[in-house]
Design goal:
Helix content of chain B: over 70%
Structural class of chain A: mainly alpha
Number of strands of chain A: 0
Structural class of chain B: mainly alpha
Low-confidence stretches of chain A: none
Radius of gyration of chain B: 18 Å
Number of helices of chain A: 6
Oligomer: heterodimer
Shape of chain B: globular
Largest sheet of chain A: none
Distance between the termini of chain B: 49 Å
């Protein structure tokens, strides 16, 4: 089986990077296949790192710093908005349930009111067709509606 | 357990600038060589530091922060290549059999050989032989086991050797 590693690997890599070769390490590397391969690869990689074009202007550190802070604040604001949206939904649901409960509780009274209201509507339609009676009849109907709903509202 | 909080809450702006000045040029060089495109390298570098500043990290030493940056950059690069592959697969050009539009200038031969390695192989070779990370640090940076690093690094070295030998190039100096 081929040898994959050598105990001197780290020392050889460091020597290639720094250029400081101890005599014993040089003697070892010359006779070790793994170390020779590491020397060749590390030298090639070092040269590759040095070779290519000059670094274009790097993004400004301050800009990156403030961008990160801004996005942190934005994330916090979005989270807060999400909470307020949930509160809004919960409030709407509570109001709707309250209304439904109130209607169920007063269902009989509402039915009576609806019957009276239908009769009153017929009267109103008749009054509208004879326009002379329209205003007085409308006023009477409004008054009647107020009088009829008053006990229900007072009860609650 | 160590407390985690976004890095910019624990590091002041001046400390970050010092850290950035030390790390960014080499990190950019790594991304540039792996990506083969300077503009893409700029974008990935920015995104890497953005994530780094927003990340909720426990108190880490400098070399661990450096490893975190390399891991993030490698992962962003891998995401980029995956997305590009998907887009090419579903592009109209692939249905009509047209050649894809030429990419950015790939630079010299050395860069071409480096780009032919898998992202993980690129990261392994760069961290071990340019940054001088030991096997434990490479394992931590790339989220691998230390034993796997030994094997993978061996394979990456062999692959690079075979790429260069096939082209009749020695490994002394990249062209």
């Amino acid at each position: 089986m081929k040898q994959m590693n050598c105990p001197q690997e780290a020392a050889v890599t460091k020597a290639v990077r720094t250029g400081n070769w101890e005599e014993s390490l040089t003697i070892h590397a010359a006779a070790c296949a793994v170390c020779l391969e590491i020397i060749q690869t590390a030298s090639w990689m070092q040269a590759l790192a040095r070779s290519s074009e000059a670094i274009s202007t790097l993004p400004d550190a301050s800009l990156l710093w403030w961008k990160a802070r801004l996005s942190e604040k934005q994330a916090k604001a979005e989270k807060a908005q999400e909470v307020s949206e949930w509160v809004e939904i919960a409030s709407g649901a509570a109001i709707a349930s309250g209304l439904a409960a109130w209607v169920a509780w007063n269902w009989l009274a509402i039915q009576v009111l609806a019957t009276r209201f239908t009769g009153a509507m017929q009267l109103w339609v008749t009054a509208y067709s004879t326009s002379a009676l329209f205003l007085p009849v409308s006023a009477v109907l409004c008054l009647a509606l107020a009088v009829l709903t008053y006990p229900i509202l007072v009860d609650d | 357990m160590a407390e985690s909080s976004p890095l910019h809450q624990r590091m002041d702006e001046t400390a970050f600038q010092d850290f950035y000045r030390e790390i960014a040029p080499k990190l950019w060089a790594y991304i540039r060589r792996a990506a083969g495109d300077a503009a893409l390298a700029d974008d990935i570098l920015q995104e890497t530091f953005h994530r780094f500043l927003r990340a909720e990290l426990p108190a880490l030493e400098r070399h661990q922060l450096k490893a975190y940056l390399y891991r993030t950059a490698s992962s962003l690069l891998a995401d980029h290549w995956r997305r590009l592959k998907r887009e090419r697969r579903w592009s109209l050009e692939s249905f009509f059999g047209e050649k894809p539009v030429a990419g950015p200038d790939r630079g010299g031969d050395a860069l071409r050989f480096f780009e032919r390695l898998k992202p993980q192989e690129q990261a392994l070779l760069w961290l071990a032989y340019v940054e001088g990370f030991d096997h434990r640090e490479v394992a931590s940076a790339l989220e691998l086991r230390e034993k796997s690093v030994r094997v993978l690094l061996f394979r990456a070295r062999k692959k690079l050797a075979s790429l260069l030998t096939n082209q009749g190039i020695g490994r002394g100096e990249p062209s």
